[in-house]
Amino acid sequence: MRMIVVLAGAGLLAACGGPGEGSFTNEDGETVDYDIDSSGEESTFTMRGDDGEEIEINTGTSVEADLPGGFTLYPGATVVSTSNVSVNEGKGTIVFMTSSDSPAELADFYKAQAEAAGIAINMENTSATSKMIAGQNEAGDSFTISANATDGGSSAQLMVGVDLQ
Fold first, then answer.
1. Bridge-partner residues for 161, per DSSP?
2. Cα–Cα dist 94/50, whole Å
3. Spatial distance between the Cα atoms of 70 and 93, rounded to a whole number of angstroms
4. What is the pLDDT of residues 7-46, one digit of tens each?
């Protein structure tokens, strides 16, 4: 299954908004079965393809971030929502957060963590109100931080993935 299925699944999860199961055919003609379990502020979406690959997405405002080794939550940040994704042996986490610190402070914090984890920075963009940094290592582990100024601080989206190739 291609990672595009993860995006399709996330969209399906958002559209369904509740429990259910079913199947769809992806762009390669593969049948993908899915299950949605939604309770309170958390939803789990599981997809299984004909090829045996399984993808699970656990998302919501009460989901604890399962960040890969070397990455931690920004000190003092408020987590708005989290999505943990597992694909066979790989995993990824998307965290939406707010902080009273500047976009540069958040982005630089995660840049240092990424570099310490062996991820080479291959993109960095700074404007007057935002900062975005992304990188990847030879194994395909990747990270992206996008932080934007808000009244009184910043909002940010952190994405970290390990073995998601």
1. 92, 142
2. 27
3. 13
4. 444 444 444 455 588 888 878 888 888 888 887 788 888 8
